[in-house]
Request: fold
Amino acid sequence: MKISRLLKFIVVSFIIIFLIWLNLKPRTLSFNLFGKKINKEFKMFYGLDLQGGTELIFEADTSNITQEDKKSALEASKSIIEQRINYLGVAEPSVVVVKSQNSYRIQTALPGITDPKRAVELIGNTAQLSFREVQISTPSAQTASESAQTATGSAELTFSNPTDLTGKDIKKAQVQFDPQTGKPIVELIFTEEGSKKFEKITEKNVGKPLAIFIDEFLLSMPIVQQKISGPSAVISGNFNLETAKDLALKINSGALPVSLKLVKQQKIPPTLGKEEIQKSMIAGSIGLLSVALFMLIIYGRFGVVAIISLILYGIISITIFKLIPVVLTLSGLAGFILSIGMAVDSNILISERIKEELRKGKDPKIAFNLGFGRALDTIKDANFTTLAVALLLFNPLNWEFLPQFGLIKGFALTLGIGVVISLFTGVFITKRILQILFKYD
Reply:
């Protein structure tokens, strides 16, 4: 029995130390999953109301879309916008389609984005990639290429009609780095049909420039050195890392099903968020200290166990929030604080039930088992009811009669996660701590 208690103590202590170390500072976790290397940024993300950022509202032009296709077109536009925002590195953006009489708007909230102009360009643009053959009047194709890219020189260029190679023939665009110069380049991965088209185009234009356009903007005009038969090609130019990422994003995202018109943009400062975080931290600290003092006075040694369990509850919750990650908002903080109350309630129930059995004169081990079992029934009923309400508020099935607001979803998400963790700490952690400290084996 002593060895068993010691082993439990070592395991619990190791878990506590590891979780504390993990949460000491923001860090990046690297691991392999099914042979694929994954880098996971492990830090807390804050929503628009706490971190500040940009809010954009676009009006969707659906005049050329039939009534039957409107819903699918708007959902597709929303999906593409979310994909584009992900390339911006925004954690959990809010993208919502809102109907106002006969018009539709797409509202986007971008936490941490302080450059609205760049966000508008990346979200609202309809990017079409095309490859065009070039006719030049100068003897040097290289001179013509350099002139087109630098907007200097006297080369006269005539762009013929686009070839049949377009953005539809590209599987993916990704940023790479030139091994010779170290500068960013954009690699294009072609489809099987695209590879055949590109091979024919390069064979036809060996020694000539090939113009690459995004919409009507000339991106690059490299000289075709030889026929290229591989499944990929690169776009090089005067890119920095940001412009290379923007280009890859536009190529990957494709065209929007509906045209968008920006009707409102608002830059939200983080000042209010910082003040609210400080107030929430102060209020939360006072509340936790008050609860800890109450538990110590009323329940004595059981209060010590409850405090340890609550500390572990807080550490585990923060770890889960960072791993998912959960974007913390004011409403999310409210849900988390409410779940702390549920965790406290679980420890009070366990302590009261065990004390009741002890007052009846029962052996401590028997009192522990009976009291814990009675408390567990009540804890499960209360927590599962709360969990059901949180799931309904989160509305994962997007039922039309339920609210779709991000504030409610944030509250429901943190409340639901908190309830699940409180069940774990209340049922497993508290029980193990009691067994270790008071020999209730």
